[in-house]
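Posting this for the archive.
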Amino acid sequence: MESLFSRLQSYRPQEGRDPREDFFTEAFCYVLDKNKKLLKEYIKFLTGKAFPDVDPVDDSIKIETQRTFKQGRPDVVITFKDIEHSYMIICEHKLGAEEGENQLKDYFNILYKRKIKGALVFITKYHVSTTSLNKNGEEVDYTNDFIKEDGNIFALKPLRWSEINTKLKEWEKSVEEFQEEIYKEFLEYMEELGMAPITKFSALEMAEFCRIPRLLQTLDECLLGEAMNELRSFKGRSIALSTGTQKDPKWSYGTSIFDGTVSLNMGVYLSAEEFKSEKTHFDDPEYPELIIYLSSDPKNNLREKQEIFCKKLSEVEFPGSSEKWIYTKDVWKWWMVISHKSMRDFIQYGDNQIEEIQKWFAEHLRELKNFIDENEILS
């Protein structure tokens, strides 16, 4: 059996993937692999109502990461047997993002084509979708906990990491004595990643809640005036100022213009995780980011033309501008070009902070507008 350090060293980073998910997955699977009783409890929990009497044979249990199939590379694959049947559990782990395009449908097909009993498990930190797609691209409701396809039964399990954390604590007696220390360390690691259940407000959080109306009013001011005038100079349908969690707490406050193929977004982001890549560096976690980004759906038939445009924009150095536009892709393979600046940099302006923030948005929107006018249009 591999050591924890070898497992962590072996994972292969992929473009568009969050390396923290791979790191966490390897650590989690190590804890399960070292504790077969714990792993059996986990298997029974994941298979749920579909296989209530399942009893895995110890020697048959195998947990793998990075296993590659024609349909994709799930985060975790667990295989095992009982007295009568063979089973496969496919797990997709997310620390924040939603599932990729057709991702669960593709993984469902791995189970279906093998004519094997199994489970498809989607675990995320914040948001649990109640539907996905089956092998035919038809919407399936997760709330039934399992579905039947051509005589085969497949367990469906949407979970939050806080639920997993709670269960791991319940199964503490299943942990081998010599593994107790690393088990406890892993639970602490989950808490550090925000994966433990939230059960109460702190006194400070209650006090801060009362300040939300003023905060939203201040954010409004940052995005109005000169900044809003420049945004409205772009063609398209404008979206009102609003908060957005995008089904997980990459909390944002902003607005956008959408012309049917491309979305232009302007706002303040509490977390810039969705924009992280080897080319973007949001290394100021204590302060929100001002962000302008242009993005396009992967299904857009003008994608190739627009992608060339954005790469070209990222190569330009605008006179008097301290921030370059950065070309990148997010985990859903939407391309985007981004300009950003930490709000820490605006503290120095004192009573003129909001005026300077509006000016920053306006200047970068003008850069973008002029570049669009001077080059081949996006649509």
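Residues 4-192 form a domain with the Trna Endonuclease; Chain: A, domain 1 fold (CATH 3.40.1350). The longest strand covers residues 152-160.
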